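Support request from a user on the community tier.

User writes: "When I paste my C-alpha cells into the form, the page sometimes reloads and wipes my input. The last time it worked, I copied everything first. Here is what I submitted, just in case something in the input itself triggers the reload:"
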C-alpha cells in the first residue's frame, strides 16, 4: 500500500507540470525584435569590461622581494658590506623589454655585482641603483659595496637606504666592544664580541632604512693592556692655603690600541677638570678599602681609538690637560704632588713653579729630578702660563720635590682711589657760591666715602652713576680744620668689577657725560676717547653727536682692568656780598681717600677783575700779567673810557688778488 502511494504522487507531479507550462508561456510578454540604441562611450566600456574579464589576473606589483640579507664590517668610518637579494618578476611583466629593479642607495660605492651568478652592472636612477632583468621568474643579486668616508675620528653612526621590501636580515661588525647599540628601524637580536669588536645581528623592517648607532658603556676597566709613552709638563701655582696645578700629558701609543687613559693619582689631590680634544668623559677611583693613605687613580675615556702606527691626523697620540689642587700648611714643608702615568709606562717631563710676591720659596729636597735654569725651560711648560716662573725642574721618572714657603711682610695698599675730580664753582655778586664736584672712583673694599663740606655749605643733590642717593650725616666731635664743617657725609660706594678679557660691553650715556668720561671709566685713560669714536662709527660721526640715553659699544682690551664709577654732588654757600673790592676763601670737600688729579674751574662776575690767586693747585689760566698792570688798565678804562664801536676791519675782496698771487708763488717754489 505504501508503494502505490509514492507511484501515484509522482504521476500527479508530471501531469501538473504539463498543465502549467502552456499557461506560463501564454502569460509571458513577447520580446520585440530589432536594434538597440546606446551611447558609443557606454558601448566601448562594455567591450573593455568583457575583454578584461577574459584575461588572467596579474599581480599589482611586477616585482616581489622574497629574501634579503645584509652583512658587513664598519672600520674607520667606512662600511664594507655584501647585499644578497632574492626577488621574483611575475609572468607577463617582461613581454619585450627589461625591468629595472631598485637595489641600493645611490650614495654607496659599488665594488662588484652579480645577477644570477653572472657579472653585471648597476644604473643610477634618482636616489637608487637599479639592476636590469630581461625575463620573468626568480632572480638573485649579490653585490659588494662601500658606504661612508674614511676618518679616524668617526662618529658612532651608520645610515643608508635600501628599497622597501619585506624584513631584511642584518649582520654588522663594529670595531668596539662593550657598547650599547640601537637599530632605529628594526630590532637587534644578538650582540656578541668578535675579533676585537662586536657582531650585531638583527632585522630591518619593510621600510629598508638602516640607521645604526652605538655608544660606549662604562665598564670601569680597560679592554687590554697597551704600550704607551708619555711626556708630561706640570705647572704649580702657589697660594697661602693651597697649591693649584695643571699637567699637560702627551700620550703616544707604541703598540696596540686603546680608547682610555689610566693615571695614577696621589693622595689628597682633588682633580678639578680634565679636558682635551679627545676627552669624552673622566672619573676618579678611590683607593681600596682598608688601605690608609693609599693612592687613587683617574680614568679618561676617549672619543676615538688611539692605535699604534696610525699617524693620520695624529691618531696614535693625544694631549689631555688635568687641573688639580691640594691643601698646604705654611708651617710645614710642602711636597709637590701631581698626577702620573700608571706604573710601567715610560715617562719624561718638566715641572715649573710660580707664586705671588708675598711668598718666599725655598727648595728643601729634590729627588729624581734636576734643576733647570729659567732660560732652559721647555716651551711646552712655559706656554701653560703668561707669568714668569720661579723654579724649573726636569725628570725621567716620578720626581720628589719639597718646598718651604715663608709669608713675606706685605705693604698695605689703597683699596679705594679717586682717579679724577672735576669741580666747577660759580661766585655770584650777592655772595652765593655754587659748587659742583664730579668724582671718578675705583673701590674694592669700602662701603662708604667720608666727605667733609666747607663750613656753611648746604648739599643740594648727590648722584652715583646718575642715580640719586641720600648720604648719611655723622657728627665729628674733634676739632674740624679751618673753614670746614664739623659733619661728615657718608657717600655709599659701588664695588668695582673686573672687565672681561677682550669682551664687548654696552654703555648707556647719562647726562653730562662725554667720550673722555666714558674712556676714563672703562680704560682708566681719558685720552682713549678716539677708540670709542672708532668702535661706534655707525652711531657717532663726531664727539658732539653724543646724546643722553644712547648705547655705545665699549671694546675691552685683552688685559683685565677695574671699572670706575662716578659720584656727583653739588652744594651752595651763602656769604656776604662781594662789594667793590675784597677777597674770598673757597674750598672743595675734603675726602678720606687719595686723589690722583683735580681740575677746578672758577667763574666770577664780569665786572670783577681778579688780582691775585693763592691755592695749593697749579693755576692753568686766568691771570697772565702782574696785578699792577691790571690795576692801571682798570683805572684807564674808568677814567678815559673805551671805544664802543667796531674798528680795524678791512674788505677781504680787495685783497683777493694779492692772496692768490702769493699762494701761486709759493706753489711754484718762489720762481
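"...and here is what came back when it finally went through:"
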Amino acid at each position: 500500500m505504501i508503494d502505490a502511494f509514492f507511484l501515484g504522487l509522482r504521476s500527479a507531479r508530471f501531469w501538473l507540470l504539463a498543465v502549467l507550462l502552456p499557461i506560463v508561456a501564454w502569460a509571458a510578454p513577447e520580446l520585440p525584435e530589432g536594434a538597440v540604441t546606446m551611447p558609443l562611450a557606454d558601448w566601448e566600456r562594455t567591450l573593455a569590461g568583457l575583454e578584461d574579464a577574459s584575461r588572467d589576473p596579474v599581480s599589482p606589483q611586477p616585482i616581489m622581494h622574497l629574501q634579503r640579507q645584509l652583512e658587513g664590517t664598519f672600520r674607520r668610518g667606512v662600511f664594507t658590506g655584501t647585499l644578497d637579494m632574492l626577488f621574483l618578476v611575475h609572468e607577463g611583466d617582461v613581454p619585450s623589454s627589461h625591468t629595472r629593479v631598485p637595489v641600493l642607495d645611490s650614495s654607496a660605492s659599488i665594488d662588484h655585482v652579480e645577477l644570477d651568478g653572472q657579472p653585471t652592472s648597476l644604473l643610477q636612477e634618482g636616489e637608487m641603483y637599479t639592476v636590469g632583468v630581461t625575463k620573468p621568474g626568480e632572480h638573485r643579486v649579490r653585490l659588494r659595496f662601500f658606504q661612508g668616508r674614511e676618518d679616524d675620528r668617526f662618529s658612532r653612526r651608520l645610515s643608508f637606504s635600501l628599497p622597501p621590501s619585506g624584513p631584511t636580515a642584518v649582520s654588522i661588525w663594529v670595531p668596539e666592544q662593550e657598547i650599547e647599540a640601537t637599530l632605529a628601524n628594526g630590532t637587534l637580536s644578538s650582540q656578541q664580541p668578535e675579533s676585537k669588536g662586536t657582531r650585531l645581528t638583527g632585522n630591518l623592517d619593510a621600510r629598508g632604512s638602516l640607521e645604526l648607532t652605538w655608544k660606549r658603556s662604562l665598564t670601569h676597566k680597560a679592554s687590554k693592556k697597551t704600550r704607551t709613552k708619555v711626556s708630561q709638563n706640570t705647572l704649580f701655582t702657589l697660594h697661602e692655603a693651597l697649591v693649584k696645578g695643571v699637567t699637560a700629558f702627551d700620550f703616544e701609543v707604541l703598540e696596540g690600541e686603546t680608547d682610555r687613559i689610566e693615571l695614577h693619582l696621589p693622595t689628597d689631590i682633588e682633580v678639578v677638570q680634565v679636558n682635551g680634544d679627545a676627552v669624552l668623559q673622566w672619573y676618579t677611583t678611590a683607593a681600596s678599602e682598608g688601605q690608609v693613605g693609599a693612592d687613587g687613580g683617574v680614568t679618561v675615556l676617549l672619543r676615538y681609538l688611539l692605535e699604534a702606527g696610525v699617524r693620520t691626523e695624529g691618531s696614535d697620540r693625544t694631549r689631555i690637560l688635568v687641573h688639580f689642587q691640594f691643601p698646604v700648611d705654611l708651617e710645614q714643608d710642602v711636597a709637590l704632588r701631581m698626577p702620573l702615568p700608571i706604573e710601567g709606562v715610560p715617562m719624561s717631563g718638566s715641572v715649573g713653579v710660580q707664586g705671588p710676591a708675598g711668598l718666599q720659596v725655598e727648595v728643601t729636597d729634590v729627588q729624581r729630578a734636576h734643576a733647570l735654569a729659567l732660560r732652559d725651560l721647555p716651551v711646552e711648560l712655559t706656554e701653560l702660563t703668561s707669568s714668569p716662573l720661579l723654579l724649573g725642574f726636569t725628570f725621567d721618572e716620578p720626581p720628589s720635590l719639597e718646598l718651604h714657603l715663608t709669608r713675606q711682610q706685605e705693604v698695605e695698599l689703597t683699596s679705594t682711589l679717586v682717579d679724577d675730580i672735576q669741580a666747577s664753582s660759580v661766585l655770584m655778586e650777592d655772595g652765593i657760591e655754587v659748587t659742583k664736584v664730579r668724582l671718578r672712583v675705583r673701590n674694592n673694599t669700602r662701603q662708604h666715602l667720608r666727605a667733609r663740606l666747607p663750613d656753611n655749605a648746604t648739599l643740594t643733590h648727590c648722584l652715583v652713576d646718575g642715580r640719586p642717593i641720600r648720604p648719611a650725616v655723622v657728627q665729628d666731635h674733634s676739632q674740624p680744620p679751618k673753614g670746614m664743617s664739623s659733619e661728615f657725609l657718608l657717600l655709599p660706594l659701588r664695588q668695582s668689577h673686573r672687565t672681561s678679557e677682550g669682551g664687548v660691553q654696552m654703555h648707556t650715556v647719562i647726562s653730562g657725560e662725554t667720550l673722555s668720561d666714558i674712556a676714563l671709566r672703562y680704560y682708566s685713560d681719558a685720552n682713549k676717547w678716539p677708540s670709542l669714536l672708532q668702535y661706534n662709527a655707525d652711531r657717532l660721526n663726531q664727539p658732539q653727536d653724543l646724546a643722553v640715553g644712547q648705547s655705545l659699544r665699549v671694546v675691552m682690551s685683552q688685559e683685565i682692568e677695574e671699572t670706575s664709577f662716578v659720584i656727583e654732588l653739588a652744594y651752595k654757600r651763602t656769604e656776604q656780598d662781594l662789594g667793590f673790592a675784597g677777597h674770598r676763601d673757597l674750598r672743595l670737600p675734603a675726602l678720606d681717600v687719595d686723589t690722583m688729579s683735580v681740575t677746578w674751574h672758577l667763574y666770577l662776575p664780569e665786572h670783577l677783575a681778579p688780582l691775585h690767586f693763592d691755592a695749593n693747585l697749579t693755576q692753568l689760566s686766568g691771570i697772565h700779567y702782574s696785578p699792577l698792570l691790571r690795576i692801571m688798565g682798570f683805572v684807564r678804562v674808568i677814567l678815559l673810557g673805551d671805544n664802543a664801536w667796531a674798528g680795524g676791519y678791512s674788505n677781504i675782496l680787495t685783497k683777493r688778488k694779492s692772496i692768490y698771487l702769493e699762494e701761486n708763488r709759493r706753489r711754484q717754489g718762489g720762481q
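Agent notes: The reload is a front-end session timeout and is unrelated to the input. Residues 504-563 form a domain with the Membrane-bound Lytic Murein Transglycosylase D; Chain A fold (CATH 3.10.350.10). The CA atoms of residues 105 and 424 lie 82 Å apart. Escalated to web team.
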